[in-house]
From TrEMBL:
InterPro entries: GlcG_carb_metab_protein, PduO/GlcC-like, PduO/GlcC-like_sf. Keywords: Signal. It comes from Amycolatopsis thailandensis. This is Peptidase. It holds the Pfam family HbpS-like.
Amino acid sequence: MNAKLPRTRLVLGMTAGLATVALATGLGAAQAQDRKPQPSAPQAVVQTSVLGVDAATRAAQAALDAAEKEGQRATVAVLDRSGDVRVLLKGDGAGPQTEESAKRKAFTAVSFGQPTSALNKNAQGTGPTIRDIPGTLFLAGGVPVAVNGGPIAGIGVGGAPSGDLDEKFAAAGLRAIGELR
């Protein structure tokens, strides 16, 4: 009988050990099945991308240089996503209206994430349109600066005799900073 006792304890111990492992594994699997993806809580703090002052200055200077190269007296504004001015360069001889024009074109481009020339058709009509939004200007000359498909800034140029030229100069500013990430 003494010889059977250690063997019985061994079998009972192994059985208890296996049962414990099976129970723990089964509970873990059951708990995993019961867990449904919970909706994430809204973030209290959201981080956004901002065009750095160096890049904004390079863009503004490149746009102004492009305008001056073609004999145009213009003003260039670079605004952030909130509509705040990051850089404003008023070229020599630029008219007093060019500052407001450049700022409003940049604001419109960053607000809608499109060049202002593309938005002009949506500002037509006799009833209320997007042209009624304060601070916007739907003349060509504003381009958005985007990161991962989302606008983070706008470059606006005012002062050339046509919006097409203003937009050409704004595009030169965008090219100066390249693709951003």
